[in-house]
From TrEMBL:
Ranges in a coiled coil: none
Protein name, UniProt field: Outer membrane protein OmpA-like transmembrane domain-containing protein
Residue span, Outer membrane protein OmpA-like transmembrane domain: 32-231
Annotated organism of origin: Pseudohoeflea coraliihabitans
Pfam families: OmpA_membrane
Length: 231
């Protein structure tokens, strides 16, 4: 007669909770933030000798320079990933450039004779933002109003017809429009890096000297990198 040996077989039993794994929650972009950005701007100014002081046809010249600013704002992230926000900037536009009147260049006049120029200064801006989040990554667009202390003028050191120096400069606060967009990345829960591009258009300014009008248009692009703290 054969001998039967019974071997107990025990299988582990897991509860449903034991099989679950922990999922890290998505990054939450809602909240206030503040930071600093710096970069480079370049574009052109278009000059017009309105009343024929030198007889120039409209022409343009290059402008460029350093741009730096502090920024602060608030984001609200919706459940579907979309984001709305508002942001302010306060900084410095080092945009500058100049060019001598083409007519005086052709006549062999000194380099500082009949010279058009642009010099940037401090600025402030207010933006609305819209974006879409991918966990720690935010893609966004922004648009708003910018006000800046930009001097655009015309200088003639040899104004023989007028009997002396003519130096009209438009030095009021200029108002323009700015649009742009960029990418932000949450390096940590409280540190956010960004890369951003903007297009700025200040439209037309006009300087008047001894009854002569000198108009200039100014627009430029800016690329900046920044770092901010989220509160």
């Amino acid at each position: 007669m054969g001998l039967l040996v019974s071997v107990p077989l025990t299988l582990p039993v897991y509860a449903a909770d034991d099989l679950a794994y922990e999922v890290e929650p998505s990054y939450n972009w809602t909240g206030f933030y503040a930071g600093f950005a710096a970069g480079y701007g370049w574009g052109d100014a278009r000059a017009e000798d309105v009343d024929g002081y030198n007889g120039d046809l409209p022409f343009s010249y290059d402008v460029d320079g350093f741009v730096g600013n502090f920024y602060a704002g608030y984001n609200h992230q919706f459940a579907n990933g979309f984001l709305l926000g508002a942001e302010v900037e306060l900084g410095y536009l080092g945009i500058e450039g100049g060019r001598q009147s083409p007519v005086t260049v052709a006549s062999g006049a000194p380099a500082d004779d009949s010279f058009y120029s642009t010099d940037g200064g401090v600025y402030g801006a207010l933006f609305a933002r819209v974006g879409y989040t991918f966990d720690r990554v935010l893609l966004y667009a922004k648009g708003g109003v910018i006000a800046a202390d930009i001097d655009q003028g015309f200088r003639d050191t040899d104004a023989t017809v007028l009997g002396g120096l003519i130096d009209p400069t438009e030095d009021n606060v200029d108002i323009g429009l700015a649009i742009g967009g960029g990418l932000e990345f949450a390096v940590t829960p409280s540190i956010i890096a960004r890369l951003e591009g903007q297009y700025v258009d200040f439209g037309t300014t006009e300087a008047i000297g001894d009854g002569f009008r000198f108009r200039q248009d100014l627009d430029f692009a800016v690329v900046k990198a920044g770092i901010a703290i989220k509160f």
